[in-house]
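User: Second chain of the day. Same drill as before.
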Amino acid sequence: MLDRLFHLSQNKTDVRTEVMAGLATFMTMAYVLFVHPQILADAGMDFEGVLFATCVATAVATLIMAFGANYPFALAPGMGLNAYFAYTAVPWIAKTFGIGQAWRIALGAVFISGCIFIFLTFSRIRVMIINAVPEAIKVGIAAGIGIFIAMMGLQKAGIVVRSDATMVTLGHIRNPETLLAILGLLLTGMMMARRMRGAILFGILIVTLIAIPLGMVDVPRRIFKIPEFRSTFLALDIPGALRIGLLNMIFVFLFIDLFDTMGTLVGIGERGGFMVRGELPRANRALLADASGTVVGSLLGTSTVTTYIESAAGISEGGRTGLTGVVVAILFLASLVISPIAMMIPPFATAPALILIGSLMMAVVGRIRWQEPDEAIPAFLTMIAVPLTYSIANGLALGFITYPLIKAFSGRWREVSLIVYILAGLFIVRFAMLTF
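Assistant: Same format as last time:
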């Protein structure tokens, strides 16, 4: 039955190989269970509710990918998109509209972006937009998010702290929590250097275990418990998200996930040998998985769901079909019962994970054509504006504005698509409205 359903023989694989591949993928991305709920908890959301939403949304989206597209690709709430949700979108809503539970409106924006994703996927507009936007902006935003996430990790670790004189400065390194975070960073980095599967997850667990006898972590009375999910289930505010001032936020959710998902699909598609003449077969079905997962996730109480590059771990183990994804989905659903363990993980234990994830995201800068100023300058401004302005939206805007302007003044205006010129104009209007 499994052979007929997932075409195992046709893809030159078997059940045992697919199961081991699913386990490998789960081990490499299980850190999401600890890191993601903590990030959204910073936005005022309930940790348990987000944990429940993370497990279920991950399982649903991955199963859609498995049965719909028959690829060994796993999905989960995206790192970077959750940072934008927690540290940019929610604070901006709270400041602009004075709303106590701004995260509800942000979830509404995620839901709307997911619905638009589904429409763009069915109409094939999504692929057209992705092909029209320059590589410099795609790379710049990915690298900028990497720096942004690393900055969050450095702050959680206490390695970088606020300074009135220089904005940021070195923290108190002798602080016990900071010392443990540095230890976790070194241990995880060494495990990653040795290509140990699950290095990030093991790093989080080791730091937590060291902190327990030191009295720095509260040990739960029980290990197994189904997390309370009513605090986030169907808590989104869709009417609030439809306010005119929030249209820009919906666009940012749309844009980042557009290119994050497509870039990941192409990257792991090439690594797994799934590409045919430079294109990924059944790409629209694969794109539908993250769009559907985003809608489901927003209803449950989590930020945008996207395809994970960690799927490459399972592919390296021989995973070739959706059966790998089925195993990943089952393992995430099984993780629901360990919510007390997830809740005891301290921020200084997950901080190294954020720093190292940020470093991994920086790998894309090698694709920037640094010798060509009309490509390098917009990419650099996009990348550096994200952490310095504490806003992914601002980095995106600067990239879209500077890219066509520099191209035009250098006499290469024909290299820029009409879509980019239109988006640049919209971002200029946005900045003008903010100014005046």
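The first strand starts at residue 75 and ends at 77.

User: Great, on to the next one.
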